[in-house]
Amino acid sequence: MQPPAQQASPPATNMYHPPQQAMLSGGLFSLHKFLMIGVILILIAGLISVLPDFTGPPAAIDYDSSDENYPRNFNQDTESYNDFERVMDTLATMIAMTGVGLIGYAFVREAYDEDTTTPALRITLLILGTVMLLQMLGSGFNLSISL
């Protein structure tokens, strides 16, 4: 009688090598997931960019003009408001660019998927994703914050 044949054990998985079934099932990438996350990031960026408008810049009527520190206080508050607006706009730009990048990546990735129904749809997705990514890179966005 022969000993039972040993079965090949599946390769060990770690964070650098996910299980093969997960890679083949498409659970790591979903067009709908990437589109939804990208749109949500763009909406959050829009909300962040209008946050400084809720209070508005300092108004001269809010200060006592007879106070000797009036010009200095007003100038400091105006400068701090401008800094807050600049930081919020920079943060909104970074979040929006991430959202647009995710959507563009999703289109390009979906165009290379073999399950896409027609070649015309694949070409359209590839062109649209490429245009979105190139527009994002070529827009000359400035993320510098003046101190």
Rounded to the nearest angstrom, the radius of gyration is: 26 Å
Which parts are unreliable, with pLDDT below 50 for 5 consecutive residues or more? none
When the domains are counted, the total is 1
Count of extended strands: 0
**Number of helices, where a helix is a run of at least 4 consecutive DSSP H or I residues:** 5
Q: Globular, elongated, flat, extended or rod-shaped: what is the shape?
A: elongated
The residue fraction in helices comes out at 55-70%
Query: Main β-sheet, in a few words?
Result: none
Give a structural overview:
- The chain has one domain.
- With 147 residues, the chain is mostly helical.
- The longest helix is centred in the middle third of the chain and has 42 residues, at 70-111.
- The termini are far apart.
- The chain contains 5 helices and no strands.
- The chain has helices at residues 20-25, 31-49, 51-55, 70-111, 119-138.
- The protein is 63% helix and 0% strand.
- The model has no long low-confidence stretch (mean pLDDT 78).
- Helix 2 (31-49) packs antiparallel against helix 4 and helix 4 runs antiparallel to helix 5.
- The protein is elongated.
